[in-house]
Amino acid sequence: MTGTPANRAIEAIWRIESPKLIARLTRIVRDVGLAEEIAQDALVAALEQWPRDGVPRNPGAWLTATAKHRAVDLVRRDVRLGQKIVELGRDLEVRQAMDVRNLGAETAADSDIDDDLLRLVFVACHPVLSTDARVALTLRVLAGLTTKEIARAFLVPEPTVAQRISRAKRTLAEAAVPFEVPARDELAERLPSVLEVVYLVFNEGYSATAGEDWIRPSLCEEAMRLGRVLAGLAPDEPEVHGLVALMEIQASRIRARVGPTGEPILLLDQDRSRWDHVLIGRGLAALSRADELGDRRGEHGAYAVQAAIAACHARALTAADTDWVRIAALYDILAKIMRSAVVELNRAVAVGMAYGPTAGLELLDLVGGDPALARYHLLPSVRGDLLVKLGRHGEAHVEFARAAALTANGRERTLLLDRAATALARTDGEGPDRRDQSPGPV
């Protein structure tokens, strides 16, 4: 899109309206790929007409009406739908007879819109798709990002993203994935897939796995927006609120996580006055809701526990005020909920901060041989932290250098190489260094 006022307005409106429009159309045509094509046709029509005629008073209703008109034409031409053409065409002809200007009240009162959006969430995040495909399709149809934007965010070629999205749509069509919210007995099985996709998007923004930027705030914002939408659509699911709480509290630190030139600033070195206290407040409110719902069910999920850990940092006015004993206890709980080498790695960091570096290193040695961590740069990074605190700077230098070789993020590599150099410079005066208290990936 060009930079004209009309086109900028169209872009903003499209980002807001496209998920709802695609959801409505998917309910009609039962095909995400076809629904997006019809929605794109409506966008093209807007690009042609709005700069000339002006943005309509209710742009969402205009796009809906235009898309439904085009759906009628397309369905009539699609012989694959057989007898459904007659029924669908009759239903849509009744709708298209309405004046577009009178559609505002209908659109605002459409009680099915939330259900449609929730169905679309579960379709886009269906387990039949690979994780990469779920992420790409979710960002495309629910966040309204272009293929180019998704490719830039994840530092992969645009054709690769386009192929993932195309393959995902084809897979969904071939598998005849129903456009529906899972039944209550299936929801517990399917919801983690949805939450995983949203959190993957957030994490890629919060700590970019590759490239020269350590954080990508736009991805965090999209993930939080999707999380808030999901919380509104599934208000009684505690883990949805737990994930929202975790993302809001983590995102509150974004401005403080980088220096003037984009260099990383570790948690305990951050200027906490730069933390976003509005986001912290929203996150704590979401955590309270997650805890309330969890108490009713007699269980608390992994996202809620991780949010509680993040809340410990958020509530500490200074780094020295951090309740590391509570954080270590929460990691004990988390380790029972989700057994993972990464959780154990984080638990070692917390134990090291709460009970001393020797205790942390002992715990780290128990998990260090896990194949899942063989190429994970934070394992040697955490080991380097603990070794520095024990005054074993020569060993720490080796670990930081190894971590730098494993990371694909340029900013993080520079940080780790600097820490390796600092450790090497201290080898002449081996001894515990109380100044270096920066935790790893907690």
Fold and architecture overview:
The chain is mostly helical and 442 residues long. The chain has three domains: 1-110, no CATH class; 113-181, Winged helix-like DNA-binding domain superfamily/Winged helix DNA-binding domain (Arc Repressor Mutant, subunit A), CATH 1.10.10; 182-322, no CATH class. It contains 20 helices and two strands. A two-stranded parallel sheet has the order 1-2.
List descriptors.
about 450 residues; mainly alpha; Arc Repressor Mutant, subunit A; 3 domains; two-stranded parallel ribbon; 20 helices; 2 strands; about 70% helix; RNA_pol_sigma_r3/r4-like
Concise synopsis of the structure shown:
The protein is an all-alpha fold and 442 residues long. It has helices at 5-29, 32-53, 59-77, 84-96, 103-108, 113-124, 131-141, 147-154, 158-174, 184-206, 217-233, 238-251, 277-297, 302-315, 324-337, 341-355, 357-367, 378-389, 393-406, 410-425; strands at 210-211, 408-409. The chain has a two-stranded parallel sheet with strand order 1-2.
